Amino acid sequence: MSLPEKAAERLYGELKEIVGERTVDRENIVEIALALMKLVEHYPDLKGPQKKQLIIHVLNTFIADTVADPTEAELIEGIVKFTLPALIDTVVSIDKKEVQVKVRKGIRKLLSCCGCD
Fold it and tell me: CA 43 to CA 40: how far, in whole Å?
């Protein structure tokens, strides 16, 4: 499955705007990936798996182009390769309500444990 070149160029440009003057690093890569997920929602010509592949491709290209330290680039690329695909799938499942996250119950339980309820 090949990625449409025009979509990749468009998302790369949008990624540049998201990152701005910051650098891509291990601390913000997930935040950036989530922002890209929001953007590709507006790419009607692509299906879900293509959107995921596009995000990963653009992130890898951006990392190769902008991260000067090879060790840091390798660490970030590892996150993109091994963590982001599952994270993207999980976020999509939550969005489609295939997976429920009971945040209120968890917070209530946490607060009761520390006597804050």
Answer: 5
Q: Per this entry, what is the length of the chain?
A: 117
Terminal C-alpha separation, the chain = 52
Of 26, 9, 4, 5, nearest to 84 by C-alpha is 26
Q: Whole-model pTM? A: 0.80
52-1-65 Cα angle (round to 5): 60
Alpha helices by DSSP H, listed for 1-117, are 5-19, 29-40, 48-66, 70-82, 84-95, 103-113
Note the pLDDT tens digit of each residue in 11-43: 999 999 999 988 899 999 999 999 999 999 999
